[in-house]
Amino acid sequence: MASKRRKSTRKRKAPSPGLGRRWREFCRSDFVSALGPKLGRLVLLGLLVAATAAGFGYLERYVRQVTRDRAVALKVELQDPPKWAGQELISQICLATGIRRNDDLTDKSLVQRWQKNLLGNPWVKDIRLLRKRYDGLLQIDCELRQPIASIREGSALYYVDAEGVVLPSVPLEGSAGHLVRLQGADFADLRPGSVIQEPAVQAGIDVLAQIRRTDEKLTWQDRIWQELAVMDVSNYEGRLSQVDSHLVMYTTNHTEIRWGAALGRSRPYYEAPMAVKLENLYRSYKRFQSLGAYEFVDLRYLRKEKADPLRQSKG
Fold first, then answer.
1. Taking the model in full, what pTM does it have?
2. How far apart are CA 153 and CA 54, in angstroms?
3. For the domain that residue 119 is a member of, what is the CATH number?
4. Domain range spanning residue 85?
5. Cα–Cα distance for residue pair 182/261, rounded to 1 Å
6. Residue 84: CB partners within 8 Å, gap ≥ 6?
7. Which of 246, 286, 295, 285 is nearest to 266 (CA)?
8. How many domains does the chain have?
């Protein structure tokens, strides 16, 4: 005979209430009712904020753990570099961050360290964006200094921007690779990142900056920048001769362009203002589509015959 199963007298454990049920019970509790409607809402809001903060904390810990466990390859990307910046310069900017393979991407001080390293590079004028991503990509958006002139000191070649900041020489793309050579001053002890304080050099740079700004507003056939080769500042403020032009440029065809006094110094020497000098310079070029057709072009004096500002021409 089959034996009957003996019924168990042990009571089953009741299932524990879920989180939603516990929350509803808490909201209906005497404790919440005693707080009053407004204060009760504040308590509930505080609990909600605390729960959200705890969730974000958990998420951050999770991301940190995943980043440590996975071998993330670090990469640097320079966003929207200027067209004149070559690949060598772009690589130098990326390397200037000082990023290392073992850098912990969860380290919140990394961005400040990379930013400091970047600003130590003389090519970097300003940083607009520096963002790290957890996939290992560091995105950089910065303003670079564009060279306007070159300086030869012995066998070393340096670039200079419109503010007189000395830059190391690297290959540049397009027309930006054509730089006017500065001469006629003491260029000893030049080093990248330093600022040239010599007034004569800055006077020459200011004139070149005005010419290039004017060039950039014109069509290609009316631009003269590519014909300029040298800016000589040796007679700045007439220190060698009061009669001769203080600042002199030479073209690639050796035409002498007598600019005259530094910007803002035309009136004491009874010279034409800057706007008239620029107008006459470009008119001279447009006449033959080249400055090389002239022996020299003197821009110092006002003339009634504005259509022909030349003192002498070849042939």
1. 0.72
2. 62
3. 3.10.20
4. 75-144
5. 16
6. 146, 172, 173, 174, 175, 176, 177
7. 246
8. 3
Read off the pLDDT of residues 198-207 as tens digits, 9 standing for 90 and up.
999 999 999 9
Residue 110 — very low, low, confident or very high, per pLDDT cuts 50/70/90? Answer: confident
Same domain, 151 and 281: yes
User: Which residue type occupies 38?
Assistant: K
Q: 40 and 100: one domain?
A: no
List, in order, residues 6 or more apart from 41 with CB less than 8 Å away.
Answer: none
Q: What is the pLDDT of residues 295-314, one digit of tens each?
A: 999 999 876 434 344 444 44
Whose tokens are 């590079």? That residue is 121
Copy the structure tokens of residue 130: 């520096």
Residue 304: Cβ within 10 Å count: 4
Same domain, 174 and 259: yes
In which band, very low, low, confident or very high, does the pLDDT at 112 lie, cut at 50, 70 and 90? Answer: confident
pLDDT band, very low/low/confident/very high, at 283 (cuts 50, 70, 90)? very high
Cβ neighbour number for residue 102 with a 10 Å cutoff: 5
